Automatic annotation (TrEMBL):
Binds 1 potassium ion per subunit. This is Bifunctional NAD(P)H-hydrate repair enzyme. CDD domains: YXKO-related. The keyword Cell membrane does not apply. AMP binds at residues 411-415, 440. GO terms for molecular function: ADP-dependent NAD(P)H-hydrate dehydratase activity; ATP binding; metal ion binding; NAD(P)HX epimerase activity. NCBIfam families: yjeF_cterm, yjeF_nterm. The gene is nnrE. Its cofactor is Mg(2+); K(+). It comes from the Bacteria. It holds the Pfam family Carb_kinase. Keywords: ATP-binding, Isomerase, Lyase, Metal-binding, Multifunctional enzyme, NAD, NADP, Nucleotide-binding, Potassium.
């Protein structure tokens, strides 16, 4: 699914109006109709709707929703936020239509004294501002947003939580805290970044029938990964394949007290289908690794507790994943520099591998092209400097991916993948049960495995992130988000591949 900018969405609306063709007010009727259909399917205990409208087209949507709910027999009150403007054309048409209903309960909010009493069981429809927001809310609008947020009632936002910018940070601004966001036609950037989690609640994308022809006219720049895209990347195993057909992965990691990380990466690498998996670990981890991952081969460092020196012949491995649990000892940093100089295929670097890299930033430009880095936001900032918000991080990830020819996976609820070429992607799988130590190690193993199997680096990152999250979703269904562990995610890769085949 494409992720469009505010400008593109506006153009898509106009394209639809022109090419379907459909009158703008009829498109609004259709959009609001989809919202009402969704609302009717939910068992709202209070069944009392309070619709808050601005005077743009988002407010127009609110007026249509109010009319349709009234006509369906629900109890509805409408509150229009006054800010000295006439309102958009479609807003005015729909205000007139609402007026024509004999039982419309319509109010205008001109000051905070006219804020209505809101009860706990009420359902608030937030149609104050949508994609036309052009500055942070202030004055009466900001007060109303605060008042509704404090009410404790359920909030359903239409298109976007009011006050939320589509393409830039809204941190510190007055923004509606929605329980559900019914957004039109496609995901927007603001609905995918972690920092907006308090505002957006459950996101439902409603197909309002915008003209598909428009999508053929634009260059894809941001996508939300979905199963259809993943199926195009995934290559089922051939019947006559042998273990040599699926590459030989090397996982480098571990230190005293942190062997679990490299065990998880190793197991994930094997579960994700690598033909052969070898690990390189400190001597203290030998028994741990051989007993917990007997299918893997094990090379050990001469040093007991941390990594120092690799064998020379690392070029023979099809892919290398480095970092899980390996610490940042000076000798371990030296080992990473050896890998960067000696290995010429793309690497997968995570965790302490990234921390070693951020202590030696000049190595970033020496990484083998198309290496895959998988930082979480803190690791990302250590690598590329402090960022005030997620939007800046995403922008920087795009820039650095191009500048250094890297595939950057910015890990988050919707992980973001930037590559030197082609559209960037957000992931759509995964859940809060994966926010646990060890999840990243599993991802490292999966991505290294796919790289070893011959997937191009960007495909390995996209497929890896998606199936990792998907496996996490299977694990959550089986064990709950609370109790699930990264080990369960590894095992649930089996469920993913059974569905994919
Ligand atoms: N056919 C279509 O196009 C369809 C569009 N659809 C719907 O339209 C929505 C977009 O509508 P929109 O463009 O009218 O913008 P909207 O979000 O209502 O706000 C604009 C109003 O707010 C004002 N305003 C802005 N910022 C402000 C601030 N900080 N503080 C105070 N005021 C502020 C601004 O005033 P201005 O500053 O421009 O004078 C203007 O009056 C979209 O989200 C979707 O819901 C659907 O029906 C599907 C079909
Ligand atoms: K809204």
């Amino acid at each position: 699914m494409q992720i469009l900018s505010a400008e593109q969405i506006r153009t898509w609306d106009q394209f639809t109006i022109q090419h379907e063709p459909v009158a703008s007010v009829d498109l609004m009727e259709r959009a609001a109709g989809k919202c009402v259909r969704w609302l009717k399917e939910k068992p709202w205990p209070g069944k009392k709707f309070r619709v808050f409208c601005g005077k743009g087209n988002n407010g127009g949507d609110g007026l249509v929703i109010a009319r349709l709910l009234l006509q369906a027999g629900y109890s509805v009150s409408v509150f229009i936020l006054e800010f000295g403007k006439l309102g958009s054309e479609d807003f005015q048409i729909n205000l007139q239509r609402l007026h024509e209903l004999p039982f419309a309960d319509l109010h205008f909010i001109q000051s905070s004294e006219t804020f209505p009493v809101v009860e706990q069981g009420d359902v608030l429809i937030d149609a104050l501002f949508g994609s036309g927001l052009n500055k942070p809310l202030e004055g009466l609008s900001a007060q109303l947003v605060q008042y509704l947020n404090d009410s404790g009632a359920t909030v359903v936002s239409i298109d976007l939580p009011s006050g939320l910018f589509i393409e830039k940070s809204s941190l510190g601004n007055a923004v509606i805290k929605a329980n559900h966001t019914l957004t039109f036609q496609c995901y927007k950037l603001c609905l995918l970044v972690q920092e907006n989690a308090p505002f957006i609640g459950e996101v439902v994308v409603l197909d309002i029938g915008l003209h598909p022809g428009y999508l053929q006219e634009i260059v894809e720049s941001q996508l939300l990964l979905d199963e259809k895209m993943i199926r195009k990347i995934f290559r089922p195993r051939q019947r006559f394949a042998h273990k040599g057909s699926f590459g030989h992965a090397l996982i480098i990691g571990g230190s005293y007290g942190k062997m679990g990380a490299v065990v998880l990466s190793t197991k994930a690498c094997m579960y994700a289908g690598a033909g052969l998996t070898t690990t390189f670990i400190p001597n203290c981890g030998y028994v741990v690794m051989q007993t917990s991952a007997p299918e893997a081969m094990c090379l050990v460092d001469e040093e007991e507790k941390h990594l120092t020196n690799l064998p020379d012949d690392i070029e023979k491995f099809s892919a290398i994943g480095i970092g899980p649990g390996m610490g940042i000892h000076a000798q371990t940093q030296h080992l990473l520099s050896f890998v960067i100089r000696r290995y010429h295929k793309p690497l997968v670097i995570d965790a302490d591998g990234l921390n070693c890299l951020s202590l030696n930033k000049d190595w970033i430009s020496q990484l083998p092209p198309y290496s895959i880095l998988t930082p979480h936001p803190k690791e990302f900032d250590r690598l590329f400097g402090e960022h005030a918000n997620d939007f800046e991080r995403i922008q920087k990830a795009r820039q650095k991916a191009k500048e250094h020819k890297l595939v950057l996976v910015l890990k988050s609820h919707h992980s973001f993948i930037a590559a030197p070429e082609g559209p960037c992607c957000f992931n759509s799988t995964g859940n809060a049960g994966m926010a646990k130590g060890g999840s990243g190690d599993v991802l490292t193993g999966v991505v290294t495995s796919l790289l070893a199997q011959g997937y191009p680096p960007k495909d390995a990152a996209m497929l890896g992130v998606y199936i990792h999250g998907w496996a996490g979703d299977f694990a959550a269904r089986k064990f709950s988000m609370e109790a699930m562990l990264p080990s369960h995610t590894i095992e649930a890769l089996a469920d993913v591949f059974l569905v994919l085949q």
